[in-house]
Design a protein that fits this description.
It is built from 14 helices and 12 strands. It is of the alpha/beta class and 373 residues long. It has 2 domains: 119 residues, 3-Layer(aba) Sandwich (Rossmann fold); 197 residues, Rossmann fold. Strands 1, 2, 3, 4, 5 and 6 form a 6-stranded mixed sheet that branches. Strands 9-8-7-10-11-12 form a 6-stranded parallel sheet, with helices on both faces. It binds nicotinamide-adenine-dinucleotide. The site of nicotinamide-adenine-dinucleotide has 24 residues, from α5 and α6.
């Protein structure tokens, strides 16, 4: 009964427990919402210490996907899968093909993707069993590395934040401090330097990534100081939970807007604390939706230009969130939740389950090249 209560409390539609001892598969697929479309979300492979830990993770993450898709304006619901295992030792073709059959059994209510511990090879194995998978290789219509699209979306979010705060979205001469110069952080730095003529500070823990960014024109600062740089914008692009009761009082920026997931250590407490300090916080699931926009476009025939153009929409989404936050005097994370919930409620009233046939047709068309090979 506890699980039913949990599902009811968080609003989940389905939870599928997948077991196949022959291939060592233990997995959970959670479909949080299919109101706006099929629940899309990655399959995470992780050596969870207990079933409870895995279940908590999949319920939380799948719900997060519903909000991200809704606020981004995509015709997707929210879903996620966790596979209990160690990606270093347990990744086998048999396991992922079996997992693919479980995904297939949901008939398109859940579409899987890459996540922590899974990769293109895993998606290809899944694809041999079901068309309900993204992140496959380019020959099967895959979209490749999402980070340039994510970085471009983050740039749109930063520009919208500037517009809201200063009345102009020009970042020329503005100072931005990027925590983490990896896939997203590096591309973001290049956009800021080359297209926006901004001043960019950066920090990382990896020497190669620091060298690459320095060469592009980023001024490197010690990693312990990056959140405290005297600047206009801090862009967290490394780790989650970096905004807490220790870091928030030390921020010297006016805007926090970056790609990292779950930046607020405690959503309610720290979301409120940033708000009360008068710092504009771009909710992470709004600003980092470029990755999701990217795989979404796989479903209708991938084209990078189109995905980039769609990521521009993050600009207006962000402005809308700030307007709600301003009008309702609420922290921005709460305004973003509100925006997502309103869209879901509107569609639920209008056209429940209307998307089904459209998506099934789209995916069947996409599956054709595989059958033709
Ligand atoms: P990445 O692993 O390529 O980059 C992260 C970088 O942060 C690495 O270079 C790492 O060395 C650095 N780092 C780690 N600890 C650090 C520290 N204490 N201080 C400074 N740097 C540190 O990952 P990525 O793909 O660039 O993603 C960055 C963040 O954005 C992650 O939180 C990810 O979940 C999120 N995100 C990424 C995408 C995407 O498309 N890649 C989409 C949505 C969200």
């Amino acid at each position: 009964m506890e699980l039913f209560q949990q599902m009811a409390g968080m609003g989940h539609e389905r939870v599928l427990f997948c077991s196949s001892p022959e291939v060592g598969l233990q997995a959970i697929i959670a479909v949080h919402s299919t109101v706006l479309g099929p629940g899309l979300g990655g399959a995470r492979m992780f050596p969870y210490q207990s079933m409870d830990e895995a279940l908590t993770d999949v319920l939380r993450l799948s719900r997060g996907m519903t909000y991200k898709a809704a606020v981004t304006g995509l015709n997707l619901g929210g879903g996620k899968a966790v596979i209990l295992g160690d990606p270093k030792t347990d990744k086998t073709e048999a396991l992922f093909r079996t997992f693919g059959r479980f995904v297939d059994s949901l008939g398109g209510l859940y579409i899987t993707a890459e996540d922590v511990g899974t990769d293109v090879d895993a998606m290809e194995w899944i694809y041999t069993e079901t068309p309900w998978v993204t992140g496959v290789s380019a020959v099967h219509g895959g979209s490749g590395d999402p980070s340039p699209v994510t970085a471009f979306g983050v740039l749109q979010g930063i520009k919208a934040s500037a517009r809201f705060l200063w009345g102009s979205d020009s970042l020329a001469g503005r100072a931005v401090a990027i925590q983490g110069l990896g896939n997203v952080g590096y591309h973001l730095g290049k956009f800021l330097l080359e297209d926006e003529k901004a001043k960019v500070f950066g920090a990382d823990v990896d020497g190669d990534r620091i060298a690459r960014a320095r060469e592009a024109g980023v001024e490197i600062v010690p990693k312990e100081q990056i959140l405290e740089v005297d600047c206009d914008v801090v862009a967290p692009c490394a780790l989650g939970a970096i905004l807490d009761d220790k870091s928030i009082p030390k921020l010297k920026c006016k805007i926090v807007a970056g790609a990292a997931n779950n930046q607020l250590a405690d959503e309610k407490r720290d979301g409120r604390a940033v708000h009360d300090r008068g710092i504009l916080y771009a909710p992470d699931f709004v600003i980092n939706a470029g990755g999701l926009i990217n795989v979404y476009h796989e479903l209708t025939g991938y084209n990078r230009e189109r995905a980039m153009r769609a990521a521009r929409g993050i600009y207006n989404n962000m402005l809308r969130v700030y307007e709600i936050s301003h009008d309702e005097a609420m922290p921005t994370y709460q305004a973003a939740d509100r925006l997502a919930e309103e869209r879901i409620a509107r569609v639920q009233r209008m056209a429940p389950q209307h998307w089904g046939q459209h998506w099934k047709k789209t995916i069947r068309e996409r599956a054709l090249p595989r059958n033709g090979v």
